[in-house]
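Lab meeting notes turned into a lecture example. A postdoc, R.K., suggested we walk through two folding results consecutively so the class can see how the record format repeats. The first protein's sequence and structure tokens come next.
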Amino acid sequence: MDVVEQIEAQIEKLDAKTFDELRDWFIDHMHDRWDQQIEADSAAGKLDFLVEEASEAERRGATRPL
């Protein structure tokens, strides 16, 4: 049995309250990792094209106020 299967087996044994706590932790953790990845990509310049696209759209008048 690999690690993921072991974790799955343990999760199956959780009561509803503990499962809900784990679910909430996992969702928060997933969001934190996503935020870290976006920050790293931004710092590395991988998202610069999005800024350029938005700036170009604004110059063309293809945007609207929020």
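The second example is placed directly after the first for contrast:
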Amino acid sequence: MHTPTIFISSTIYDFRDLRSALKFYLEAQGFKVLASEFNDFQKPLDRHSYEACLDAIRAADYFVLLIGPRVGGWYDEENQISITQREYREAYRLHQAESLKLINFVRSEVWQAKEDRSELAKFLETTELNGEVRSAIVNHKSKSASNADFLMKFINEVGRNKETSLAAKGAGAPPTGNWIHVFSGFRDIVDVLNAHVFASVSVEDMVAKRLLRRELRDVLRQCLLKFKDKAYSPSHWINRFHQSHPLTLASRSNELTSIETTSWDSIATVAMHLLGNRQLHLVVLPQVLAKPTFLEFDLASNSFHETPAQNALVRLQEEVRRFNTSNTAENLPILFEHSPVRRMSGQKTVEIETVKLAGLLHLLDRWSNIVVLCSSLLKYLDGGVFSMPSLRPDTPVQGMQEMLEAETASETDIDAYLTSYS
């Protein structure tokens, strides 16, 4: 899952409080916000701050432009290009490439000043004043426009007035991304964002995924093994034990199972991490499964369909339930019964009760499945493509899974039964 990213572009001095409020609000909804004055904005030491901002725009999904009465710093003073204008031009280039969406705002007093000056300019055209005098009057400095000529041209550029005029004459296609929203305060901006940004991203779903991500990381933290300052999955040792000492349909009835001591000591060392009656507690996951967060709407059937991620979450919930049920005092004493201190020196194999071994392996398989499911789901929540991992079967006895599935009613069986039910 890709986290929607918003870049806020404006002069900072006169928009400081508004930028701070927007960042706080948007991040509370689950967005990533790029605002250059904050410490979480990446500031590469080998890049000029202006260039770093342009780089950040290329990583954003939305570009929020705020135009106020000030010009701010110059990116190219000789050609009268401000840094905010340069950021906008880079954003518009990306918008044309369909990799960025533009949301443009102008303060109401600046917009009104633009309209008034436009009307004044038309009036002055009817007077006998020369061009320099008319221009000086129209572009005089005021509280709502510190550099009126620049701001009016910038607003016209954002509105794509020239391209629109040419398109009306049949010279080119009408421009996109030229909506300008006039605002007086924070609420006006939020209303626009709610309509344009949150319309495609459910805030509730974003919050749910964010909380789920935290819970899955907590589960993973409890389940990973740590050796020499590095974390490992127990799956490697569990799979290797199943390969070297498989329980089969033929051997399941044997009272004892013979295992090489090296293999047993390896898997027993891993299983020792489960001591202490460790239980995993899920709070967020059951709530997420009760919502359509990971469902997809199918227009043809007018209904929601389960996604692979949804199925994986259902399976994870079941694996955790089985793990908690199996992680009991009955399944772990076997680790001590066949420890090295209870064996004869040089003993090559240990004879373990098959029933107890099956119980332990069932617990270890649940542990392995929890780790790989959490890992795949976290990759997905961090923006990757979900792929269902390979899981250990419900039973550690090879060949029995197929028997269990054959004896359990499938979805097709249930449909056939309901069709005939009266």
